[in-house]
Amino acid sequence: QNCPYQPTYFEDPAYHSERPAKFLYDADQQGGGYKYSSGGSAHCPKVGGLESHCRPAKDCAVWYDLVRKTPGTACTLENGHGKGICCPDLPLNSLHGKPFSKAGLCQQGYKLDAHVEGIDIVAVNEAVDAGHLLMSSVKATEKRLFDNNIRVRPGSDRHTHSWFFFHSTNESVKISNGSMYGVYTAQQLAKRYRIKPEQVHCALNRFHLKDTVISNTCPTFPDCDLKTFNSPFRTITGICNNIHPPGHVPWGLPRTQYQRALAPNYADGLWMPRRAKNGGELPPPRVISLSVIRDIDAPSDTDTTWMMQFAQFVDHDVLETVEAKLADGSPVPCCTDDGLFLSEQDYAHGKCIPVEIPKDDPFYSKFRQRCMQFARSAPACRTDRRLGYVEQMNQNTHFLDLSAVYGSSDEVALEVRTFKNGALNVTRLRKGYHYQMDLLPPDDVGPEISTCALSKAVSGIDPPPEVRCFKAGDNRVNVSPYMVVTQTVILREHNRIAEGLAELNPHWDDERLYQETRRILISQWHHVIYNEFLPALIGRSKMQELGLLPLQKGFSGDYDDQVNPSILNEFAGAAFRFGHSLVPGRQDLINQQRIKEKDILLRQHFFKTQEVYPPGNVDKFLIALATVPSRSVDNYFTEEMTNHLFEEEGKGFGMDIVSLNIQRGRDHGFNGYNAYRALCGLPVAKEFHDLLDLLSPTMVEKFELLYDSVDDIDLFIAAVSEKKADGALVGPTFSCIIADQFLRLKRGDRYFYDLGRQPGSFTEDQLNEIRKISYARLVCDNSNVLSSQPLIFKSVSEVNPIVDCESFDSIPRMNLYPWKEVENSAWHVAEDGVKWFPDCDFPGYDIGYVQQVADGGQCAQKCKESKGCNAFWASDGWCTLKTIPSWHHRAHLSGGICGFVPEKF
Ligand code: HEM
Ligand SMILES: [Ca+2]
């Protein structure tokens, strides 16, 4: 039995936007999924042995590698004027995909030495005192640096790295300073009791901070209130996404620790960087970089530069590591300003592990550089609030929630809003009578106003007065012009949707418009990631194996409250840095005729926004991203990143991203590459030549020269050089870590876009509209780019030809109509203002106690609390009590009534 309410479609011609081409609610396009014509599909060949149908390309993204190779798959859509692709239905997901099991050291009857076993809480508290002494000596070291004017010079590459790239908020610095008490205490105990590195974590993890005198050094989190828990809108910080028993840290919040795929390998079991298996030094990262990395552009024939740029945007959503700072929050100097090592005393704070540059370095020797700056990542408060090895801290919400747009804290979220009509702040530029499309708003409280302008020496002109650094939810937005234009598109899409919703629902206030828009935009984001980006990155078979493929229709019930969505340390510190190999040395400006007009050298444009301002340039960068072939993930990196990263003007050199990545892996205690092969079910190498299954003979030879043992090889450098996994852009090890992460981000997120029966669930019609979105559509709708290939991560080909942005058949557009809230006389308005549509019946539900609210013209299941309704259907089919303290009291009432459940059963 269907909902008796049938919406009348919105056909008022008076509604049109200022830019008619960007029309949002086209009545012709209203409706569910795409209909396949027998005519269009009759000529479709079998693809991979399966029946195929002619559909818009975005519905074939998952099959792209196959359809590209199958002749005759380019087709004309049913109405005769849209180009499409013949591809099969989406394959069914495997139901067996599971995340890595929890990394742990102390699970299986580990045995401690007797004297270690005897450590008690008194001993721990004594060590706290000694830890305090250590802290004073750290302060003294920092004062010495200050007194001797040893600091990071503003303008230097290190300053850009620490101040702009790894900008830590005051709150993060405070938390990491607090966590240091635990670290120092643990170090003292390990030293005093001579605990072996392999025992130290298990020995100390027996002690909870709350039982010690440093019980208040880590923050507590507020419990989630019922109203927020049941809100259709996710919170900015991610609180209430999952529930946590009192006293436990909720998952996925900003400033919480990364989780680990494998328990760490720290030399001292606590925080010292890994050493070689034989106890010796590992090769210096720069030596590895010099030996293995070349700057060769091996262009992909299937992917565009968008793969690189979109990946970086995803990275800026889900993670931002906190770097250790001096007590006042300023960057830690780890080398002299001349590129030499500081004195031993200057390192006594323990926050530096500078990278040694060999004397005969073919590049840096020209500049007499021997020391590359490297400050350690800041320790996090451990989620278990116990003593133990150091974990690192993520400043962003771990969820895929566009925190790079909206911010990860309530403060930033407020800063980017206008509080008018749900819109976000912009820069509006006008030349004469012509408005340009909006740019991101200026960052007026951040760095000095001029830092993002180019010098005259670079640009040939005086810096235009309007040039500013831009403000967004993540402070790395200005890292390069490509990043800026990427965020610009999404910002414009927010304001475009908000405008559309405001016209559809004039009675919605700013807050409602902002929240609804945010919910839609984040869902589009999810859809693009799982429908277009991931298939290109890790391939269809990996996605299918883990159950990550998007659904063609209907709702998912995949949410699992036992899956921890937090970002894996190895994902942040290694796997998702694959993109560094894709970064092009130059960013291009290409016009609508696909002719390159100009290119800019990356080293001159880190954190420079000037090129984004001239009219038309946003579009030219966007066209370049869709046109220039991607580089490949391999041991080829542009010199802009390996010798000139964040180069200070006139210096001639910058930092080396490959050295930083390798050193970061050691800083975070990653195991050797071989251990991750084992984790991923790949053959473990006993000898170097066993690596030949995934690495080239040249690479294996180089590794054999560099490392003593095959177990010593650093994760990043080996995995980035692997042969590609089936249908993937990356090799099997990175693919395995990345897939695990995206499984967590899907199954561990109560607000994942296609979930049914959750407070944040859409109606089916709304969800079908979200499914129409492709990344090409977002670019088309939010720029003056006139044409695009429908699958924008993929290069132009016979099945992916350039079409007009106005071709809504080839690049479908979503219709906001299902978000129109319809007044109906049958509504019953409850005391709390919620409107209930009493006769709205749902297939499969008994409405005895459950009221359904017509939401946006559709039926959605909701409970009416004033009628004593206290339970809802959880995604796993369990009728679940809403009261949080007893959330685990659940009854399986399938087919029965879920609405009122006695507290005790
Ligand atoms: C303009 C291009 C880029 C620049 C200048 C850049 C620069 C950097 C730098 C300096 C770091 C910190 C290194 C360290 O000290 O540990 C970093 C980290 C990282 N990069 Fe990139 N990167 C770029 C592109 C990308 C791309 C395309 C990806 C996409 C896959 C990516 C993913 C990451 C990730 C995941 C991290 C770890 C961040 C964290 O832990 O907070 N980067 N990048
Ligand atoms: Ca996030």
TrEMBL record:
Gene3D superfamilies: Haem peroxidase domain superfamily, animal type (1.10.640.10), Hepatocyte Growth Factor (3.50.4.10). One of its GO terms (molecular function) is heme binding. Its main location: secreted. Heme b binds at residue 580. GO terms for biological process: response to oxidative stress. GO terms for cellular component: extracellular region. CDD domains: peroxinectin_like (cd09823). The keyword Nuclease does not apply. Transmembrane segments: none annotated. Keywords: Glycoprotein, Heme, Iron, Metal-binding, Oxidoreductase, Peroxidase, Secreted, Signal. It is found in: Secreted. This is Peroxinectin. It comes from Daphnia pulex.
